[in-house]
Amino acid sequence: MGSLVYGVSPAINMNDRMLRHVQYVITTKLRRGEPFSLHWDNEPVADEAALREAAHGSVWLSSASQLYFSYDGRRRDVPLNKAWVEAMMQAAYSADGFTIPSEPLPVASS
Predict the structure, then answer these.
(1) Nearest Cα residue to 100 out of 33, 35, 34, 43
(2) Which of 1, 42, 49, 109 is the most exposed place for a label (fewest CB within 10 A)?
(3) Nearest to residue 11, comparing CAs of 40, 62, 45?
(4) Residue 30, CA distances (Å) to 34, 47, 54, 77, 82 in order
């Protein structure tokens, strides 16, 4: 059975590397005044009951959203993969909403 949660949604758990990139894309989009939806598949979510797997979830993000990014380690220790940031930005402009793509290999600079 699915749920519609109004207000505070469950925490979407992801590793620090992915979270660092997602935070960059979210803050860039919201700083530009560009609301969008964020979708996830099979990422663990923490709700009031317990940590559980979610088949799919979606939240609407806008400048009115209250967001909190929590890291296990130090955020500044996670370098950005520019190719992944670009892939995420393109996904965030999709009419279907932002689904986090797999991390591509970084482009070698010459």
Answers:
(1) 43
(2) 1
(3) 45
(4) 5, 25, 25, 24, 19
Q: Cβ contacts of residue 58 below 8 Å, gap of 6+?
A: 37, 38, 39, 40, 97
CA atoms within a 13 Å half-sphere pointing along the CA-CB vector of 81: 17
Cα dihedral sign, 72-74-99-101: negative
Question: Can you give the pTM of this predicted structure?
Answer: 0.80
Is the pLDDT score of 54 beyond 60?
A: no
**Both structure tokens of 31:** 């700083």
Please tell me the distance from the alpha carbon of residue 92 to that of residue 35, in angstroms, as a whole number. Answer: 9
